[in-house]
Amino acid sequence: MSEPVVALVMAAGLGTRFGGPVPKQVQELTGKAVVAVAVESMAAGGCTDAVVVVKDGMHNHFRLALAASPIPVRFATGGSSRQESVHNGLQLIDASTRLSKARKVLIHDAVRPLVPAYVVKQVLAALEDGAVAVTPVVPVVDTIRQIDGDVSEVIDRSTLRAVQTPQGFDREVITECHRRLHAEGGEVTDDVSCCERYGYRVSLIEGSRMALKITEPMDLDIAETLVKATAGAGHHSGRRVRRVLSRMDPRPSHRRRG
Ligand SMILES: Nc1ccn([C@@H]2O[C@H](COP(=O)(O)OP(=O)(O)OP(=O)(O)O)[C@@H](O)[C@H]2O)c(=O)n1
Ligand SMILES: C[C@](O)(CO)[C@H](O)COP(=O)(O)O
After folding, report:
1. CB 166 within 8 A of CB 7
2. Of 25, 124, 235, 254, which is most buried with the most CB atoms under 10 A?
3. Which residues form the pocket of ligand 2, taking CB atoms under 6 Å from any ligand atom?
4. What fold does the segment set 5-215 form as a domain?
5. What pLDDT digit, counting tens, does each position of 188-232 carry?
């Protein structure tokens, strides 16, 4: 059997900013759970297996949501922070006879379900070319002000990038870095930063606005709208969305009716 490429899909968060009784990872998007769409996107980009990290006691719920997954799914139990959840997922992979044969692992947020296949493929290609820790990034589009008490100043956004997932890694390197971080303590908000902390170089590739993170309720509405725009275009991809959107009438709907 060929070497696995593992998608470690993070889905053990509380979703406090999203709110509501149903966790955002299992909210409906395109008639499926958000987490199921995320796993499909990773499979479309070339991942052969998924490990989905979920909150303790939620395994059966997620098993149902992922019953029709195109790739085999295993479950790990999350921790109280994202970095703890990632550590637990990497440990499960390391303990598996099959999954520990993987040289590459891609760590992805379940709540970035619409990441285009071409971005996943480019992360894998960068690893193939020798990178050890890779992340997609997008330019910052807003004017940014840095605040200091009650004063603030504009900072140069041309040097800033917003960080997305999936982030790709040499599996043994990221497993060791997270093991050390777990033992020593310290905080990171993404996984390339964990590698960087231990001296590894981070490679950047171009991400996609399609990989938006569902953080607040409006983000789910935006994701649903993007999916509708791609209907009939096959599996969603940033390029197809751009093609479909470019064919759409740019006038607001109230002016089109006239
Ligand atoms: N203990 C945690 C915290 C977060 N995550 C996952 O990491 C991703 C990014 O986190 P974020 O969107 O910030 O999710 P939450 O922590 O759920 O949101 P909030 O901060 O609003 O509570 C999500 O897919 C989330 O499920 C996780 O697996 N384990
Ligand atoms: C990992 C991440 O998606 C990079 O943007 C993000 O940091 C996770 O979100 P959080 O709100 O910091 O947990």
Report:
1. yes
2. 25
3. 82, 109, 163-165, 189-190, 213
4. Spore Coat Polysaccharide Biosynthesis Protein SpsA; Chain A (3.90.550)
5. 999 999 999 999 999 999 999 999 999 999 999 999 999 988 775
